[in-house]
Amino acid sequence: MDKILRVNMTDLTTAVEEVPAEWAGLGGRALTSTIVAKEVPPTCHALGPNNKLVFAPGLLSGTAASNSGRLSAGAKSPLTGGIKESNVGGTAAQMFARLGIKALIVEGMPKGEGWYALKVGKDGVTIEEERGLLGLGNFAVIDALQALLGKKTGVIAIGPAGEMKLTSANISVKDPSGKIRSHGRGGLGAVMGSKRIKFIAIDDEGAPGIQLADPEAFKRASRVFTKALMDHPVSGQGLPTYGTNVLVNILHEAGGLPTRNFTHGQFDGHEQICGETMHDTIVARGGKPRHGCHAGCVIQCSQVYHDKEGQYLTSGFEYETIWGLGANCLIAELDDIALADNLMDDLGIDSIETAVAFGVAMEAGLLPWGDGKEVVRILREEIGKGTALGRVIGSGAGAVGRTYGVTRVPVVKNQAIPAYDPRSVKGIGITYCTSPMGADHTAGYTIATNILNVGGQVDPLKKEGQVELSRNLQIATAAIDSTGMCIFIAFPALDIPECLPALIAMINARFGAKLTGEDVTGLGKTVLKLERAFNLAAGLTSADDRLPEFFSSDPVTPHQAVWDFTNEEIDAFWDF
Q1: Which one, of 178, 180, 350, 332, lies nearest residue 260 by Cα?
Q2: Omega into 110 within 30° of 0, i.e. cis?
Q3: Which of 193, 212, 340, 377 is spaced 20 to 30 A from 495 at the CA atom?
Q4: pLDDT digit string (tens) for 347-397?
Q5: Other C-beta atoms within 10 Å of 36: how many?
Q6: Could you say which DSSP state residue 310 is in?
Q7: Crossing angle of the two packed helices 334-347 and 138-149, in degrees rounded to 10
Q8: Judging by DSSP bridges, how do beta strands 83-88 and 71-76 pair with one another?
């Protein structure tokens, strides 16, 4: 029987609750957003006692379904002021699901200055005072917990950035290799820090496991689904070979690679940081060009990157991080970016928000363009030690812009715009504007259709069809985020007719349900409208669904493209 674990940090009590009937058919993002919308006052301070931090595995987490190991975390975001859901790979989602944990809800705030740890197991959750690991980075925390509690222990933790409640702090989750995946966006690490929880340790020994309503039907659907993932050229070939960093050269050619803090659309140093170069470097140094972020991942777009001496430097080395410090900050040395990525993992800070913040800081003259060594020093000596400069950069691109009077600040709802220029790829601009999460490429990844010709083709430089494209993808993504699936299943789902029905068949076989495609679409619509209603109640308006004005006034090379949507055209997104 599934259960809800509730932790009250004000009086340091815990409870095991039955799953309310209205939550029984929900998982992942649908569940975290439903709980936040119901239990969190929209106007509360995101770092105050009335905010709640919710973790929920997806509907298929813990099963043998390929790529189903995502864990959702939700709360009111201290960065955007609106609702936030961020999902991640690692080991925690599958452990929660095997333990029958539908959701873990953390509420309240401790009195005094003490810090705590949560221990989750088959009998529920306990609270323990924590002293020994305070101030340590994420890698040291995971190593210490594995030594103390065993290699199989699941870990959810915050680094020094979360302890300092920096608004770009993330929540780190241990992956199968003992390294880190991140609930990266929206400052959820600061929310966990405000609850004064350093880590959550998970022990699934004796877990009841997953019961399937129809095991044979599940197996049949699972085989079809996995075959679709492997047959698609993006999920079966491009991503496994070059990782997400395959996109550097593709976006450069399309003129959509934001360069020098979104001044240009192409980067002269693209060959030095692209996926092809990264792949050859990894192979030459004895790293791993393929690596799964959770058990059961068949795409394996992650990798392990070694330094020149053949020693581990970083893993999960994503396109958005490489773009952010590479093209956006003009750093053409891949090893410098990899070291910075490692430091951001250890500090527990969002590598997209922080990379864009560095771009704004370079525009402000705080450090030279292209100076990777100074980026590394600032991460270690300023952000890591909580100096005034470090706290400004660690609070995100918007904070840097406001502090130093920069007007070219690429944010929406105060969240940094990721690695695709919305003037040259207009569909993603609609997603940045309208997503309840703030600027988030994963919320409705129009790059698939605008650039990769997946699911058809919509000209990235024209306005026609972009609102509809973003709307359809955001609805689909909200539903996929609720299943515990990786967003990259969207590639075969858009092109291979058998893929999406197989996904729905697995959900039906898991729960004995009779869901249709329309039901799944309806879930996505419900989630989006629920999240938008929370944001409106929190004080956000349609004026927050806009790109910064420089996108309309400053053409970007090579197409001389500008952002030319009217407010009415953007607002039409919500006509469903």
Answers
A1: 332
A2: no
A3: 212
A4: 999 999 999 999 999 999 999 999 999 999 999 999 999 999 999 999 999
A5: 24
A6: S
A7: 60
A8: antiparallel
